[in-house]
Automatic annotation (TrEMBL), chain A:
Gene3D superfamilies: Spore Coat Polysaccharide Biosynthesis Protein SpsA, Chain A. Keywords: Membrane, Transmembrane, Transmembrane helix. SUPFAM superfamilies: Nucleotide-diphospho-sugar transferases. This is Unannotated protein. Pfam families: Glyco_tranf_2_3 (PF13641). The chain crosses the membrane at residues 390-409, 453-486, 498-518, 524-541, 561-584, 604-625, 658-676, 683-703, 709-732, 753-772, 984-1003.
From TrEMBL, chain B:
Pfam families: DUF5719. This is Unannotated protein. It comes from freshwater metagenome. InterPro entries: DUF5719.
């Protein structure tokens, strides 16, 4: 039996909920405290009455008094310690008790036993478990991380199975059940009364440590702690608790502890960490829709920094009581690695819980221990399935089929891809970000068009390949069919228990005509759509009864629709059509017209689904309102589709698509399913609608990106939807069909099923044959030689007019475009200007031999070279040679280059005498030799500015449509494109996106909203 | 219900498919520019008189030797060139140039659009040669021309010539292949609007041996058709003709020949089965014994081949020689004949063509040519132009012209054909590999 004297100090504040049990636990201690003293901080509940009933002496102090003040008051009421007993090694101990912490009957005895052989220990604490879940380990010693987080070294909701048991040296222990030697407590000045609640324990432990004493946690002593204040189970009424917010107080105190106790050298870094940590957490809370917590984070740091005197005083006080090097606590402060590891573990655990929810545990709770048969595991035969059975799994077989086909199909696609609708990818994702942010794009004669959001999305997605966009795009096209297979399977397996049917149908989707056309012709948008569609289409059946979607769901779906529309503008056409039809339908069904509440609810939801994607796609989406036909455009280069006769068999056509004789079973499946079961018809009907819409859309002719050429619409979006609906209807129809057919006599059903099967087999064979033979020579290939020869890429600022003949169908056509020292790269086509009339006429002159002034025109627009790409047309070569104004500089196997004889450049200065000088630009500055005008050889835009001596020069649009500035003095000028408008759009986009994401995310719960059970 | 669904589906599919196909017009993704390139006539070098036969006094013309591309109206229907070379906006008409050294020799050649490759099978570069190769650059940019010469000993290293903008370069044949008796020339412009013209003029001391303008041949082919070889003799004696051949490829050629004449079709002695060494200019003498007249020579070869026939002529009491070169298949075009009175010769298994003859007074007269193997038509001196239409397959033709100065040959081939070129459209796709 220990001879130590123990005084239990119970601090009470509105704790009647827990107090009865706490008092009982004090009374039932094996080793009783020598005296028990309660301090009540102005409780307004029955706490005091309860204590008095238990015959515990109570002193009541001010309600706003902090925990430290309460303990200090209690200690001041105790008789003075006896010096002689200390000399014998017997000390008086203060056992600090909380009104929400129950102690195990052995707790005090275990604590005293632990300190018996450890004379340097002046503070010991129990193992704290949850109040409700008493297997939940809360603390076994506590520390503080450099970002101010309370560090216990435990996993969230860690199950206590004795894994941390023992007596451990720790930085500090919780004050709940802590045993503190009274003389040291008094010597160190007790708990810092600036820390009225929270973190006073860590602070005291820290001070104990640097005073040369030890702190231990004792797992044999157990307490069950409700953490009522931290969990917002009672109000925080302490004087210093600004706004009475626990989180604010906790964060403020955490920062205080760190800044008051850390060494001087660590302060700048700590300050930075605390600030950045607060910002990050505040952002996180905003995303979790907890603005109160977010403000707590920021206010906590702010309120502390507003009172530096408090900190200085605290540091001075600690310096006086510090006896050993502050390095002694270093071992107890978690390292950055430990903090990172813990963060990752937490993140991984949360992800795992989301992706692989423990449904078994949730679904079948063990009601009784009797239900458990521990011998069952031993009796159950161990499965010894041979490893090769993995190859009998349907999805493995389907993936293997794609892999085998892909070996031949993609043999020309190992490396950086380009061709078809896909332009060359830049090496780094930074180039895509630059393109997205830039207000002016040096493409053709220049463009101020806003870069569409898909460029940004691809740039961000390229982070998975360490920022290498080329690798990302290559992997996307190589793995595209696999990704589509998996996503389709996730969707289709819900309709059948037959794994082979689901896998076969997914394989058909992954090798459907529209997938093949998308992969072969570099149609990035359709490829993304095909992969994402199965995820989205699962929800589409609630479109009619859209009120069943929560608002969070509406925002989530809006984001998803935006993502699809960013890559496929035709989604807007479908969306507008669907919203219009649905609203009309709702109105017709509505008994009270537009005043009907259900009509309104549906209307608001539908409009949200339309407006948010529209706003997120701004300002490009506003352009769609002015030119609705552009909704049918694809992203990237314009590559025509195959017309209605191919579209009706679900083949979008165009370069790289399957030939007409590879007839897919999609249309047949839709027709058969339409007359099949009601369940199958549910999918077949929208499928037929999209098939017919796709057929009709394939007739539309629209001018493409960066060209005046009109081309037939590629109906990939419509046909993707039709294909997925067809396959889903097929799966529903074929599920358990064998049994159904066996039960009936041979009729049209047998014939139609046989027909579909034969068609599917024929398609599989012909498509596979085509893919491994002709299909590999698709427009999209790797290692394609550059258009521009290397010597034309040296002068980055020089414009080169590239003329090139290419086969369009069976005819040879001629195209031209202005290059800025490189080939077209990803995203540039979407912002490229179509043409400049004057230049087009000058180019025509090169062909029809009328271009006597062509070289002059080119020089006016800053075009320095004319490059005729091989294969050249002799007549054109002769014409350019003969026209004059051009000097042939080279003729190589790449093509023929002529230099425009008239001097030209980016900035052309014309003085008042009419003398023309080409200005040498250094970045955005150039030196003007005399007053006159400066013409910028870029397309006119209101954003162009020329500054001289800090003043903006007057700007006009000259007769050629070029921006021209009046320069009044000789000297240096600065020419740039003002990107304010672009920055405004980007800000608008970010605000809209973040707001929508926040609204779509599940809301975080305040601690007071979390059940006791969850909190343990 | 099922029936209704069937009808609905059938109607929907039929309607969409029909209306789509009705609306689906093939989008013309390009527009075309159609034009006749201007034709370039040979330069009038000192000592020669040059006259260009035109069909209209309203034709536009400019000349080399200036910096201007401006054209002027000709004002006459036979234009005499005193110097330089004429460039004529002759549209579908092929002007014909008659060049002569008065009282010594004469020759004819068609004005033609610049070509990317021209072969000349004829002329000599030996001591008797006074001939020259004239390179005309009708463009306003400098031209670089590669000239390859083949001789009886083989091919010589190609030479390159720079021809200044809108000018011509006269290159004596003796400087191209000094001492070579038999030459053939291949002219390939590397840049510029270039036409080449070859004059084969010969003399021994002060004695003139005659001369001719050697017409260019198209690229080598396995079937060579020389439609008109004049047989001009005083008595029924064998006349000497010389067949000059060149196999420009890497493999020797085995040839066979056929002569078509009004007397019938026969094979000349000593030609059939003959092997022609590659890249060497080979001459085969042909002693043809028949009445005065005209015959055609058809040569078949197992390798692409070029060839022409050198014939001594006697016209209006004047001795001369003429190079009858191969002619491509006859196509629709208009030949300006003002002041020339040529004899048109057509050859083919079955000759059939319609000639629209326009007199100097503007009267139009249609003449139908029918025959087998060979047919001739003498154009009157008052004829301004002859348009060839409704031509049967496999017909080739040539014109033979005689004057006091000498005798000329002209293959019937258009000098300028309608060029249809797609007008380029602005398209960023051209910057994508």
């Amino acid at each position: 039996m220990s001879s130590q004297r123990v005084t239990a100090i119970l601090v009470v504040h509105d704790g009647s909920t827990w107090l009865a049990e706490v008092v009982a636990s004090i009374a039932s201690q094996v080793r009783k405290a020598d005296q028990v003293f309660a301090i009540d901080t102005g409780s307004v509940d029955s706490s005091v009455k309860l204590l008095k009933g238990a015959r515990i002496p109570v002193a009541t102090i001010d309600r706003e008094a902090g925990f430290g003040a309460a303990v200090a008051h209690a200690v001041s009421q105790l008789p003075a310690a006896i010096e002689d007993s200390q000399a014998d090694g017997n000390h008086e101990w203060l056992w600090i008790l909380h009104d929400d912490c129950v102690l195990h009957p052995n707790a005090l005895e275990s604590l005293l036993q632990a300190i018996e052989d450890r004379p340097n220990v002046v503070m010991a604490g129990p193992k704290l478990l949850g109040w409700h879940d008493r297997t939940h380990l809360i603390e076994l010693g506590v520390s503080i991380a450099s970002n101010g987080a309370r560090w216990t070294g435990l996993e969230p909701s860690e199950y206590d199975q004795g894994q941390h048991d023992g007596i451990h040296d720790v930085l500090s222990v919780s004050t709940a059940g802590a045993l503190i030697r009274r003389d040291v407590f008094e010597e160190l000045g007790g708990f810092d009364q600036n820390l009225e609640l929270f973190r006073d324990d860590v602070d005291f432990g820290w001070r104990v440590r640097v005073a040369g004493h030890a702190v231990i946690s004792v797992s044999d002593a157990i307490g069950y702690h409700a953490q009522a204040s931290a969990n917002e189970r009672r109000s925080v009424d302490v004087k210093g608790a600004f706004l009475h917010r626990p989180l604010l107080l906790d964060r403020r105190n955490a920062a205080y502890v760190l800044l008051a106790n850390s060494s001087l050298f660590a302060l700048p870094w700590l300050t930075l960490q605390l600030l950045s940590g607060a910002l990050v957490r505040a952002t996180g809370y905003l995303f979790a829709k907890l603005p109160g917590y977010a403000s707590d984070e920021l206010l906590a740091i702010g309120s502390l920094f507003l009172h530096p005197a408090e900190l200085l005083k605290a540091r001075k006080f600690r310096k006086m009581h510090r006896l050993i090097s502050p390095r002694v606590v270093k071992n107890f402060i978690p390292s950055r690695t430990s903090q990172l590891r813990a963060s990752f573990t937490r993140l991984a655990s949360e992800l795992r819980a989301r992706i692989l929810p423990n449904t078994a545990a949730q679904d079948s709770a063990v009601l009784s221990d009797l239900d458990l048969n521990e011998d069952e595991d031993l009796l159950a035969p161990i499965s010894h399935a041979p490893w090769r059975t993995i190859f009998y799994r349907p999805m493995v077989v389907a993936a293997a089929i794609i892999a085998v086909i892909s070996l031949a199909w993609t043999r020309h696609r190992i490396g950086s891809l380009s061709g078809g609708a896909l332009t060359e990818s830049p090496e780094s994702f930074r180039d895509l970000f630059k393109l997205y942010i830039a207000s002016w794009h040096e493409v053709g004669m220049g463009s101020g068009e806003s870069t569409p959001a898909w460029v940004l999305i691809v740039g961000i997605a390229s982070i998975v390949t360490f920022g290498n966009t080329q690798v990302f795009i290559t992997l996307l096209f190589l793995l595209g069919p696999f990704i589509i297979l998996v996503s389709a399977h996730r969707y289709l397996k819900k309709f059948t228990e037959n794994g082979w049917l689901a896998a076969g149908a997914s394989l058909l989707y992954a090798l459907s005509p529209v997938t093949i056309a998308a992969v072969n012709a570099g149609r990035l948008g359709v490829l993304i759509l095909l992969a994402l569609l199965p995820f989205f289409i699962r929800q589409i059946y609630q479109w009619i009864e859209v009120e069943k979607w929560s608002w969070r769901g509406i925002y989530g779906h809006s984001l998803f629709l935006w993502l699809l529309a960013a890559f496929n503008p035709s989604i807007f056409a479908i969306l507008i059509g669907a919203v219009l039809l649905s609203v009309i339908n709702d109105y017709q069904k509505s008994p009270n017209g537009y005043q009907d509440p259900l009509f309104k609810v549906r209307l608001y939801r539908r409009l949200t689904l339309l407006v948010i994607p529209f706003l997120l796609s701004a300002p490009g989406s506003f352009g769609l309102l002015r030119h609705p036909s552009r909704m049918f455009l694809e992203i990237g280069l314009s590559v025509p589709g195959g017309g209605p006769n191919l579209a009706i068999v679900a083949n979008p056509g165009g370069p790289g698509s399957l030939p007409w004789w590879c007839i897919s079973p999609i249309t047949a499946v839709l027709i058969v399913a339409y007359f099949s079961t009601t369940a199958a018809r549910k999918f077949a009907t929208p499928g037929i609608v999209f098939l017919l819409l796709g057929t009709a859309a394939s007739v539309i002719v629209v001018p493409g990106n960066g060209t005046t050429l009109s081309a037939q619409v590629f109906a990939g979006t419509f046909l993707s939807l039709a294909t997925l609906f067809a396959i889903a209807s097929g799966v529903v129809m074929f599920d358990k069909i064998k049994a159904r057919l066996q039960q009936s006599n041979i009729n049209y059903r047998h014939i139609s099923v046989a027909l579909v099967l034969i068609l599917t087999l024929a398609y599989s064979a012909t498509a596979a044959f085509w893919l491994v033979t002709v299909g590999s020579n698709s427009p999209v290939q790797s290692s394609q030689s550059k258009v521009l020869p290397a010597y034309l890429t040296v002068e980055k600022s020089a414009k080169t007019l590239v003329i090139r003949s290419y086969l369009q169908g069976s005819e040879r056509a001629l195209g031209y475009y202005i290059s800025r020292g490189s080939d077209a790269t990803l995203g540039e086509a979407d912002v490229a200007p179509a043409d400049t009339q004057v230049i087009s006429q000058a180019v025509e002159g090169l062909i029809d031999n009328t271009g006597v002034n062509s070289s002059k025109v080119f020089a006016t627009f800053g075009i320095k070279y004319v490059f005729l790409k091989k294969p050249t047309i002799d007549e054109i070569v002769q014409t350019v040679d003969g026209l004059g104004g051009f000097t042939r500089t080279s003729a190589t196997k790449a093509g023929i280059v002529w230099k425009v004889n008239n001097p030209t450049g980016r900035l052309i200065h014309t003085d008042y005498a009419g003398e023309v000088t080409i200005l040498e630009a250094k970045g955005v500055t150039a030196s003007v030799p005399s007053p006159g005008t400066v013409t910028l050889t870029e397309s006119f835009s209101n954003g162009w500015r020329l500054y001289q001596d800090g003043f903006k020069s007057a700007r006009i649009k000259d007769q050629n449509g070029l921006p021209t500035f009046e320069v009044t003095n000789a000297g240096e000028v600065t020419v740039f494109h003002d990107g304010t408008l672009r920055r405004a759009w980007i800000s608008f986009f970010i605000i809209t996106l973040v707001t929508t994401i926040v609204l779509a995310l599940p809301a975080g719960r305040r601690k007071r909203e979390i059940s006791e059970k969850e909190l343990a | 219900m099922k029936k209704e669904r069937s009808i609905l589906l059938a109607v929907a599919i039929t309607f969409v498919l029909l209306s789509s196909n009705l609306l689906n017009f093939t989008v013309s993704t390009k527009s075309f520019s159609e034009s006749y390139p201007s034709t370039v006539c040979p330069p009038s070098i000192p000592g020669l008189s040059t006259a260009i036969s035109l069909t209209s006094a309203e034709m536009q013309l400019r000349k080399t030797g200036t910096n201007s591309m401006k054209t002027k109206t000709v004002k006459v229907s036979r234009y005499a060139v005193t110097s330089q070379s004429a460039i004529i906006e002759s549209e579908e008409v092929t002007p014909v140039v008659w060049q002569a050294r008065k009282g010594v020799w004469a020759g004819s050649v068609a004005c033609s659009a610049p070509a990317t490759s021209q072969w000349f099978i004829g002329a000599t570069a030996d001591i008797t040669s006074k001939g020259s190769l004239n390179l005309v650059n009708s463009g306003l940019g400098r031209a670089l021309v590669s000239v390859s010469v083949f001789t009886e000993k083989g091919s010589l290293t190609p030479q390159e010539f720079i021809v200044k903008a809108n000018s011509y370069e006269n290159i004596p044949l003796v400087s191209l292949a000094p001492g070579a008796k038999r030459i053939s020339i291949h002219v390939v412009p590397k840049s510029g609007r270039v036409n080449a013209f070859l004059i084969d003029e010969r003399g021994k001391g002060l004695r003139a041996l005659g001369g001719d303008v050697v017409n260019p041949s198209s690229n080598p082919e396995k079937l060579l058709e020389i439609p008109a070889i004049p047989q001009l003799n005083k008595r029924n004696l064998a006349t000497s003709h010389t067949l000059r051949l060149l196999v420009p490829g890497e493999i020797n050629a085995r040839i066979s020949a056929e002569i078509r004449s009004t007397d019938g079709t026969f094979s000349p002695v000593g030609i059939n089965g003959k092997v022609i060494a590659n890249q060497k200019v080979i001459e085969i003498p042909m002693n043809i014994k028949m009445d005065s007249g005209i015959f055609a020579l058809i040569i078949k070869s197992d390798q692409p081949i070029l060839g022409s026939v050198f014939s001594k002529t006697l016209a209006e009491g004047k001795s001369d020689f003429v190079w009858s070169t191969s002619a491509p298949k006859l196509s629709d075009f208009t030949l300006a004949t003002t002041g020339l009175a040529p004899t048109l010769v057509f050859t083919g298994k079955s000759v059939r063509a319609t000639l629209e003859v326009v007199s100097s007074k503007g009267e139009l007269r249609s003449v139908i040519i029918r025959g087998e193997d060979i047919a001739t038509y003498k154009v009157s001196a008052s004829t301004r132009s002859v348009r060839f239409t409704k031509i049967a397959r496999g017909v080739t033709g040539a014109a033979l012209i005689s004057s006091k100065s000498g005798y000329g040959y002209l293959p019937l081939t258009p000098g300028s054909v309608l060029t249809k070129s797609a007008i380029p459209t602005s398209n960023i796709s051209v910057l994508n590999p």
